[in-house]
Amino acid sequence: MTLKNAAGKNTADQPPTTGGTEAADRVADVLLLFSRSGGALGVSEIARTLELSKAVVHRILQSLSSRGLLTTMDASASYVLGPAAIGMGNKAWSQLDFRTLAAPVLRRLRDDTRETTTLSVLTNHSRMYLDQFESPQEIKMVVDIGASHPLHSGASSRAIIAFLPEAYIDEAVAALRKSKPDCREEDYAALLETVRRNGYATSFNERGIGAASIAAPFFDRAGNVLGSISSCGPIFRFNAADTEGHAAKVVAAAREISDLLAR
Amino acid sequence: MTLKNAAGKNTADQPPTTGGTEAADRVADVLLLFSRSGGALGVSEIARTLELSKAVVHRILQSLSSRGLLTTMDASASYVLGPAAIGMGNKAWSQLDFRTLAAPVLRRLRDDTRETTTLSVLTNHSRMYLDQFESPQEIKMVVDIGASHPLHSGASSRAIIAFLPEAYIDEAVAALRKSKPDCREEDYAALLETVRRNGYATSFNERGIGAASIAAPFFDRAGNVLGSISSCGPIFRFNAADTEGHAAKVVAAAREISDLLAR
DNA sequence: CTGTATCATTCCGCTTAGCGGAACGGTGGG
DNA sequence: CCCACCGTTCCGCTAAGCGGAATGATACAG
User: Whole-angstrom Cα distance, residue B125 to residue B232?
Assistant: First the structure.
C-alpha cells in the first residue's frame, strides 16, 4: 500500500505535491483557497473543494484562526482571512521588490517599443505607479511614480479591475457615475469583458489629452491580479493598425513578469 | 525522552497550542515569523527561533514556497514572503471589514470627546483614511476619506510609522527633507521614540493650519501595526492641560480595536 | 411540531505521515 | 587547511493525526 504512493504521491489530479510535507501543503492550499474564492468559506465547502476530510479541514481552520490568519465572521460558522493576513501582505510588500524584479522586462519592452513603459500595482482599492522607463524620443509620456490612481479609468487600471471580483467593479461604476452620470453599467461590463478576452486594455485620450496607453495585467501563482504594466505615449504614434502587434508585446512582457513571480 | 512531551506539548514557553493540529500550528508560526521579522530568513535561524528541528523547517519552507507564499531571493539560501502573500493581503482587505469592525469604538470615542474621530490604515507605503465620525460641534475637522497620505507627517501617520521597521523611517526622513531640508534625523528618531513610549502621537498646526490631532495605533495579533485612529479638531479646543487625559481615551479605544482584531 | 438535510464539532482506534538524529556536500572566514 | 555553519537528504520508529461515524445545532418544509 505504501509501495509507490510514498514519494510520488499524486492522486492523479490538481495539486502536484512538491518537496515538503503533505500536511504543510494542505495548510497552504487552504490559505490559497481563501485568497482565490471571494467570500467567506465554511468547513464543508473547503473539504469538498480540496477533497479533504471535514475533520482535517476543521483542525486546520482552528490552527489558522488561532494565529489570526483567519477570522470567523460575527457569530460563527464561516471564515474569512484575518488581520494577520493583512499584516503579512504589508510585510510582503517591503520584502519582495517588484521594481527590481520587473525592471529588466520593462526596460526591454521600452527599448523594443520606443515608448515609455510603466509598472502599476494594486493597493487596497486603488492603483499606484511603482516605476517607469522613459521613451528615448523627445515627445514622450511621463507618469508620476508613487501617487495613487482610481481603479475605474485608464488602461492600466482597467487591465487590473477586469480581473477583480464583482464588488470592485460595482464600486468603480459608482465612482465613474460621479463624473459621467450617463454611463451605463452594461457598457462598462462589456468593456471589461473585452479586456478579459484580449488580455490587454487600451485607452486613447482618456486620462490625459493626447495620451494613449496599452496595458496588460500580471498575476501571482494563484491567479490573483497583482498589478499591470503599460506602454504609453503621445496618441499620434499609436495608430489603430499597429495596436494589435503593439499589444502582443505588452502582453508577452506581462506574462514574463507573471512567470518570474511563479518561478 | 518522549515521556510527557506527547499530548500536553508545551515546552513551557511561548505559543500555546490551540484547537487544531500541531503541524498546522507550525506552518502558521513560520508564516507569522516572516511577517514579524523584517528581512530574509534561513532554515537554521527559523529552526532556532521556533525551537523546531531543521528538517521540519526545511520541509515547511519547501511546501510554502512551492505554493508561492514564500520566495527564495535570487540565488538561494534564504526566504522572503512571496507574491501569493501579497495576493492574500489584498484579498484580506476585501473580506475583512475594518470600518464596520471599528465603527462602534470610533463612534463612542467621538461621543466621549465631542471631536471628530478618524480611522486610518497602512497601505503599501502610505496611509489612507478609511472612515470618520464627525464632531457634533459647529466648528469641526473633516478629513477626506479614501485619499492617501504620506507616512512622514501628521499624528495619524506618526502613530503608525513609529512601529514600522527602520527602512520605512529612512524613507520618511528622505521624503521629509524635500520640504524641510533642515530637519535632523536624530530629532525625528527621538520624536518617534516618544510616540513609542507614550503609545500615542500628537500634531498641532502641522498638516493644516489651526488643526490638532491625537492619534494611537492598533495592531494585529502578531504585533504588526495595521493602522491608527485619531481624535482631531480645531487647535483652540486642544489645550496642553487636557492632552494627557484626551490621549488616554484615544489609546484605550485603539487598544479596544486591537483586541477586537485579536479576538 | 416533526422530519429531513444541512452544518460544525467531537471522539477513538489504526496506521501511515513525518519527526529527528545523524550524515552529507558546499561555502566562507580565520 | 580546518573548522563552523549552512542547507539538504536519508531512514527507521513512533506518536501525531487521519477518517469514518456519532453527536448536536440550525434551518427550512410540510
Answer: 23
Q: Which residues of chain A have pLDDT under 50?
A: 1-15
Nucleotide nearest to A9 (CA to C1'): C17
User: Measured in angstroms, what separates residue B55's CA from nucleotide C19's C1'?
Assistant: 8
Give me the CA B35–C1' C28 separation in Å, rounded. 29
Contact A86, B92 (CB under 8 A): yes
Query: What's the confidence (pLDDT) of residue B13?
Result: 36
| Per-residue pLDDT tens digits for A99-132 | 888 999 999 999 999 999 999 999 878 898 989 9
How are strands ordered across the β-sheet holding A211-219?
Answer: A148-149, A126-133, A116-123, A225-234, A211-219, A201-204
* Chain A residues closer than 8 Å to B90 by CB: 89, 122, 124, 224, 226
Cα Dmax for chain A = 70
Q: Which nucleotides of C are covered by protein (CB under 7 A)?
A: 6-11, 16-22
| Cβ proximity of A78 and A41 under 8 Å | yes
pLDDT at A8: 34
Stretch (H or E) spanning A44: helix A43-50
Rounded to the nearest 10 degrees, the angle between the axes of helix B22-36 and helix A54-66 is 30
Which residue, among B260, B214, B227, B254, has the nearest Cα to B124 in the 3D structure? B227
B30 to A64, B50, B143: CA distances (angstroms): 12, 8, 39
Q: Are A141 and A234 in contact (CB under 8 A)?
A: yes
Q: Give how far Cα A139 sits from Cα of A70, A110, B49, Å.
A: 50, 14, 55
Tell me which amino acid residue B51 is: E
Closest CA to A217 of A159, A134, A172: A159
Q: Give the mean pLDDT of B216-236.
A: 93
Interface touch B91/A68, C-beta < 8 Å: no
CA distances from A135 to A115, A232, A255, B15 (A): 4, 9, 22, 54
Distance (Å) from CA A263 to C1' D2?
38
The phi, psi pair for B25, rounded to 5°, reads: -55, -45
Q: Distance between CA atoms of A67 and A75, rounded to whole angstroms?
A: 19
A9, A22, A32, A221 from B64: Cα distances, Å: 17, 11, 11, 12
